């Protein structure tokens, strides 16, 4: 039987508990999960590509150990579908938080399908405890002095707060 390979792409700036929830759940569905950390200058990242990949890797290592699924964290640039093809993915995993996410994700899935109809997009609904978490809100709350500890894993919390305070972790 062929290895089931999925790609979960995102900017992960910073990685949140919502992202971790999707990684954990996707890992139970496939043999190998690649978490693609994208460059997206348009989103004005707080962390460098390497830092974001490191924060995701810290959590992915634990999840791989717990699930027995091979999980790789790989930075990428360019078209998502080309990256998916390069790693041999049969599916792209996307998390949905609310109806507002669906419009964008539906269009993206359609475009990706047109580019390569052999790669399916699979949507996982965010768990009820994580439906409202968004990286941009986490950054805003942290910047304004709020407590983000319940929204992000411990290492992401530490690094985000250090960055907000002008320290290099």
Characterization of the model:
Strand 1, helix 1 and strand 2 form a beta-alpha-beta unit. The protein has helices at 17-27, 49-67, 80-87, 99-115, 135-143, 154-164; strands at residues 5-10, 32-38, 70-76, 91-96, 120-125. The chain has 6 helices and 5 strands, in the order βαβαβαβαβαα. The longest helix has 19 residues, at 49-67. The chain is globular. The termini are far apart. A 5-stranded parallel sheet has the order 3-2-1-4-5, sandwiched between helices. Helix 1 (17-27) packs across helix 2 (49-67). By secondary structure, the protein is α/β, with parallel strands linked by helices. It has one domain (5-158): Rossmann fold (3-Layer(aba) Sandwich). The mean pLDDT is 93.
In short:
With 169 residues, the protein is of the alpha/beta class. 44% of the residues lie in helices and 19% in strands. It has one domain (5-158): 3-Layer(aba) Sandwich (Rossmann fold), CATH 3.40.50.620.
Write the SSE topology.
Layout: E1 5-10, H1 17-27, E2 32-38, H2 49-67, E3 70-76, H3 80-87, E4 91-96, H4 99-115, E5 120-125, H5 135-143, H6 154-164
Parallel strand pairs: 1-2, 1-4, 2-3, 4-5
Helix pairs in contact: 1-2
CATH class: Alpha Beta
Instruction: Kindly name the structural category.
Output: alpha/beta
CATH superfamily, called what?
HUPs
Unreliable runs, pLDDT <50, ≥5 residues?
Answer: none
Biggest sheet overview: 5 strands, parallel
Helix content: 40-55%
Given the C-alpha coordinates, what overall shape results? globular
Strand content: 15-25%
Radius of gyration: 16 Å
CATH architecture annotation:
3-Layer(aba) Sandwich
Would you count the extended β strands for me? 5
H/I helix tally: 6
Order of helices and strands: EHEHEHEHEHH
Spatial sequence of strands, sheet with the most strands: 3-2-1-4-5
Total separate domains: 1
End-to-end distance: 44 Å
* CATH fold-level label: Rossmann fold
Mean pLDDT: 93
């Amino acid at each position: 039987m062929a290895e089931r390979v999925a790609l979960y792409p995102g900017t992960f700036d910073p990685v949140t508990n919502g992202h971790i929830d999707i990684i954990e759940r996707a890992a139970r569905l496939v043999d190998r999960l690649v978490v693609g950390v994208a460059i997206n200058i348009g989103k004005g990242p707080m962390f460098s590509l390497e830092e974001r990949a490191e924060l995701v890797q810290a959590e992915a290592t634990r999840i791989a150990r717990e699930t027995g699924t091979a999980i790789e964290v790989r930075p990428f640039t360019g078209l998502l579908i080309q990256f998916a093809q390069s790693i041999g993915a049969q599916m792209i995993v996307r998390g949905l938080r609310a109806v507002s996410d669906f419009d964008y994700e539906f269009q993206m899935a359609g475009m990706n399908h047109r580019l390569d109809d052999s790669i399916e997009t699979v949507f996982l609904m965010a768990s009820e405890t994580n439906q409202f978490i968004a990286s941009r809100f986490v950054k805003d709350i942290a910047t304004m002095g709020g407590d983000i500890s319940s929204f992000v894993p411990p290492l992401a919390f530490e690094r985000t707060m250090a960055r907000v305070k002008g320290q290099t972790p």
